[in-house]
Model the fold of this input.
Amino acid sequence: MTTIFGVPSAVLFGQLLLGLVNGAFYAMLSLGLAVIFGMMNIVNFAHGAQYMMGAMLAWLLFNFLGIGYWSALVIAPLSVGLMGIAVERFLLRRLYGLDHLYGMLLTFGLALMAQGALSNWFGSSGQPYAIPAELAGGRNLGFMFLPNYRAWVLAASLVVCLGTWYVVERTRLGAYLRAATENPMLVQAFGIRVPRMIMLTYGAGVALAAMAGVLAAPVYQVSPSMGADLLIVVFAVVVIGGMGSIMGSIVTGFLVGLIEGLTKAFYPELSSTVVFLVMAVVLMLRPAGLFGSRLDNAGGPHEAPAEAPSSSPRTQMVLVVTLAASLIVAPLVIYPGFMMKAMIFALFASAFNLIAGYGRLVSFGHAMFLGSAGYVCGHAAKVWGLTPELAILTGTATAALLGLVSGWLAIRRSGIYFAMVTLAFAQMIYFVALQAPFTGGENGLQGVPRGMLFGWIDLSNPVNLYVFVTVIFLGGFVLIMRLVDSPFGRVLRAISNHEARAQSLGFEIDHYKCVAFTLSAALAGLAGSTKAIVTQIASLTDAHWSMSGEVLLMTFLGGVGTLLGPVIGAFVVVAMQNYLAGLGQWVAVIHGLIFAVCVLAFRRGIVGEAAAWWRRRKPHGAGPVPAPVQAASGK
Amino acid sequence: MAEALSVRRLEAWYGESKVVHGMDFSVGEGEVVALLGRNGAGKTTTLKAIMGLLQRRTGSIRLDGEEIIGAAPFDVARKGIAFCPEERGIFASLSVRENLLLPPKIAEGGIALDEVLNLFPNLKERLDSQGSKLSGGEQQMLALARILRTGARVLLLDEPTEGLAPVIIQQIGRMLSHLKSLGFTILLVEQNAGFVCGLADRHYVVETGRVVDEIAGDEFERRLESVNNYLGL
Done:
């Protein structure tokens, strides 16, 4: 048998084919993302869910109605596309003119809802979908065996991709689309119904995702979670290629698939992380992406944070003392286990808020800090036998280091790209945690000892443990509070308000962003380490992307950019999880619903809305009401 | 002369700030009317209000007697008004040909593409260039050319001479006279008094969002001094 660099040629070609097939799906999905983003400036986080719905629908059609593959290939994209049109018409349309992040959050919420509901109804395990009879079997090409269905997927995806490219770049309709991307108002003034065109474009992009889903059904297992993990890889593809060009996303999709295939043949251990490594390299060498020409701008206006200009030291003192007092009294009426969990998540959310709220860099990968710190702290306490405070310090330092490296790379992009980059890095860490020898894989790192704090305080005593967690939480909270009010915090907020202006005042904005990101990572790591000591386990849950989603939810629900918001949000979400635990996957649906409601109805969160209401009631109170931010309508 | 466009008590806002405070004027069919005024007087805003491009506007805008103030921008265009925006609004990512073909035909009677290209020979040579590659003068020609083939009879032109060389301005002036002879109704926003002199049938002077003076075409030269006064020259 011939071998190439020690790998049998049949294996190599087999992996390359598999890579190309994967690449076909990357290309179709990133193409749809690019078309939607070009038209609407929305990163469609529901794209993975819509892909999954295409596959699920094909599966349902076959199993319940006996409708076969070829009909499903038409019916599923049409129906999912129609759902997309309804989503655009009734939900997304309300967000135009706002910051791009809101569209991302809304579609993320919708994705959670779709995925949660389908898991409830049909279980989360994978279901097989048979290859249609016409495409069964394969042929021997001499150097390798080519299954017919894979050949069909490649051909079909190429036709779809090139067809889309042709329509957008070479037809009259495409000219309308490109013109509307540049200047939608003027295109309207020429007599073209731009809102309807946007609606149909979104529908078409969604239908494309659903069609990819149907094509994928016989290749992969059909399950409600099949889209989520794929989407993260597609985001990495988008960052690598740049979202500017249609052809760019097609080429990058196939290219990344091939790289993955090659890695699988030569160094399989790296195959699930290689995409993210390529992304890191591209970010270092060509931040705008291989085919991107310009770097992203920060986007539209944020909802003005409702925080008073700056609370006085007195108010802050009162706040901390009240918080401390209620935390000390709470265990008398509330289960202490719940309180400790909530405090840990409150610290996590506050850390996230430091960068997302005050630095306006919304990270979608903060789970990597929580998770990795937990593992390292657990390992240090269990295997190295360190005392809890040293174990926690080790975990925190690990998260800080990880934050420094990932932050250094991620801050090269801003806005939605920043979110995608951090999400991709977090996914890389997740795969490392899944495969590394010391993490215990799916089982997690169990039996972490609580140990003796400073060698003489026994943390297995519940009272000691509670006080310990309370001190850590309050310490972290006060630190963040002081940080936000410090000169550093003010520069950070100035940068988030207007980057160029802050730069022209002489601030090294990248330096500030990187430091803030590292601090936020370290504090998140502190929360993760403490969690490992308290719960005595470090598990994959803490490193999973859904954890990054949860911390976003806590912060946005409580009030992004407010001190108390993340704390309250964390308590609400943890309470919800405790009391709704019996509902299983419906919790994800409820999370998604809260996301959607937050984005559509109260963008300032619980604390922000309450503060705004309070100040409206007392117009002559302490702080001036912040003027509503208007969409910039340049004359 | 029948009124093609009549604007009454028009008020319009940019976000929170009110820019147009009760505009009153009309444009007869086949007439060339100029709105003259300084920067920030509300001329461009008036055009945008007519096109329906502003969220908040009140008053009355009638096209051939039909009220259009509540209409969406694409409806206004389909009823027969074509718009040539300030700074030309050429789509940089589209070729010259695509830019030319972009506005859809809304009625019969537009100028055929071949004829448009005969009117603008420069564009003929550059049909496959990218919109971003054109010079300022070429861009202005393209912005004018692309609204001639749609069949719209009323043209709103926002400062077509802005930032152009005198020789180009002369060309554009000849072009507008030609369009007038073809029967187009033209509402022109300008700051360049020399350009509109002899071209427009009537002139409205706009200050702080209102019409403060009306000058007939044949009086314009005689009153040039007061016009320059209005324009701050």
Notes: The interface with chain A takes residues 14-16, 44-45, 51-53, 72-74, 76-78, 82-83, 85, 89, 91-94, 98, 101-104, 106, 147, 150 of chain B (CB under 8 Å). Chain B has nine helices and ten strands.
